[in-house]
Amino acid sequence: MISTRYSFPVILLLLLALVPTVIHSYMGLTYDDAKSVQNIATTFNDFTSLPAKRNEQWGKDIFDSDDWFERDYRNTAYTKVRLFVARSYNHKKLYHHPELALSYAQNLSQHRISTLPNHPEIPIHILTNDDKSIFVAYTLLYGDNFIENPIYHQLAESVRLLVSPRKLMTLFYASQTGLAADASVNQSATLSLLSQAIQSFKQQQALK
Fold first, then answer.
1. Nearest one of 19, 132, 29, 39 to 89, comparing CA atoms
2. Tell me: the pLDDT tens digits for 76-91?
3. d(C-alpha 170, C-alpha 96), whole Å
4. CA proximity to 38, closest of 197, 164, 186
5. By the 8 A CB rule, do 130 and 109 touch?
6. 136-190 pLDDT, tens per residue?
7. How far is it, in rounded angstroms, from Cα 104 to Cα 42?
C-alpha cells in the first residue's frame, strides 16, 4: 500500500506520462510547414526530368510518406541522375538504410560521410559499389537543420518529441549507375543536381 503522502506525486507522474499519449495517439498533433516536394523544380539548368514509373502507393508503403516523388533527370550530354525525395513523420522509415529500397539488390559496400560541395553545412552520405560503377548520395533535412547522425538526432529529440507535435523529416536521394571507375565528372553531376533540388525545396519558405 502506498502512503497517502505520495499520492499527489504519483498522480502527477501518471498525468505527465499521459501527455505524449494524448498528443500523438488521441490528438495526432503534427506541425505543417506548408512545403511539398512536389514543388521542387522539374528542370535544372540543362537537366530535364520525367517521373519514374512507381505505383502511387509505393512511397506510402515503403516510407510512410504521402509526399514523395522519384524522377529521372537527364542533361544534353545524356547523363542521367535518378532523384528521389520524400517527407515523413516516421523518421526511421527515411533514415534507416534508404538504399535498401531505393537501390535494391545493389551491393553498396562502400560508405562514407562527406559534405555537399560549396555547402559545408550539409552532410551527405555517399555510397558506392566496389568498382564505383554505382554512385549514391543522400541527405536528411529536419526543420532547418541537416542531420548527419539520425540515430543521435532521434535520441536528442526524444524528450521534446514526447510533448510536441510531430515534424516532418525530408530525404533527398540521388543516384547514378553504369559509371566508369574514374567517374568524378559524372558524380559531380549527381551532387550538383542534389544541391539544386535542396535549394529548390528550401526556397518554398518564401511561399509561407
1. 29
2. 888 899 999 999 999 9
3. 13
4. 197
5. yes
6. 999 999 988 999 998 888 877 776 766 678 889 999 999 998 776 665 545 688 9
7. 24
Q: How many CA atoms lie within 13 A of 103 on its CB side?
A: 25
pLDDT digits (tens, 9 = 90+) for 182-202: 655 456 889 999 999 999 999
| Nearest-angstrom CA–CA distance, 164 and 30 | 8
d(C-alpha 108, C-alpha 174), whole Å: 14
What pTM was computed for the model? Answer: 0.83
pLDDT of residue 59: 95
Q: What pLDDT does residue 26 have?
A: 43
169-176/135-142 β-pairing: antiparallel
Q: Supply the Cα-derived Rg of the chain in whole angstroms.
A: 21
Q: Domain boundaries in the chain?
A: 1-30, 31-207
Q: Are 98 and 173 in contact (CB under 8 A)?
A: yes
Torsion of CA 83, 87, 90, 94, to 10 degrees: 20
